């Protein structure tokens, strides 16, 4: 069995807004919790009623698409085949960088 995720993101990516003051009523330190301290940035907060939350693209808060949506995609396949758990897992892919890539401490874009 195979499952995948097709991401239909805008070609320009999520942008790179400047750091600034937290939105009114937001306790930024509480929102960060145990994550490394960073100045408020709209993308790091990422809660926007007109957009998919962007915080999920930062390693400090999430693990990317696999940890965000993977369980939902895999769960559907497991239910369809009446399987309690996978018997084997294979991951394929590569890291690529473009002008839209957000560099993190685990990725390097040159």
Helix/strand class = mainly alpha
Number of domains: 1
| Annotation, overall tally of beta strands | 0
Shape: elongated
Question: What do the pLDDT scores average to?
Answer: 77
Order of helices and strands: HHH
Query: Count of DSSP helices?
Result: 3
What's the Cα radius of gyration?
17 Å
Query: Which range does the strand content fall in?
Result: under 5%
**Describe the biggest sheet?**
none
Q: Which percent bin holds the helix content?
A: 10-25%
Report the span from N to C terminus: 36 Å
Taking pLDDT < 50 over at least 5 consecutive residues as the criterion, the unreliable ranges are none
Protein architecture, described:
This protein is mostly helical and 110 residues long. The chain has one domain (19-110). Helices cover 24% and strands 0% of the residues. The longest helix is centred in the middle third of the chain and has 17 residues, at 64-80. The protein is elongated, with a radius of gyration of 17 Å. The termini are far apart. The relative contact order is 0.16. The model has no long low-confidence stretch (mean pLDDT 77).
SSE diagram, text form:
Blueprint: H1 28-32, H2 42-45, H3 64-80
Short description:
With 110 residues, the chain is mainly α. The protein is built from three helices and no strands. The model has no long low-confidence stretch (mean pLDDT 77).
């Amino acid at each position: 069995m195979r499952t995948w995720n097709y991401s239909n993101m805008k070609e320009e990516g999520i942008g790179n807004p400047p750091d600034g003051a937290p939105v009114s009523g937001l306790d930024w330190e509480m929102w960060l919790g145990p994550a490394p301290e960073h100045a408020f940035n709209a993308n790091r907060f990422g809660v926007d009623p007109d957009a998919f939350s962007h915080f999920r693209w930062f390693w400090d808060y999430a693990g990317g698409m696999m940890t965000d949506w993977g369980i939902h995609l895999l769960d559907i396949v497991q239910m369809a085949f009446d399987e309690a758990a996978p018997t084997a897992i294979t991951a394929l892919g590569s890291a690529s960088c473009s002008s839209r890539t957000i560099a993190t401490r685990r990725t390097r874009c040159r």
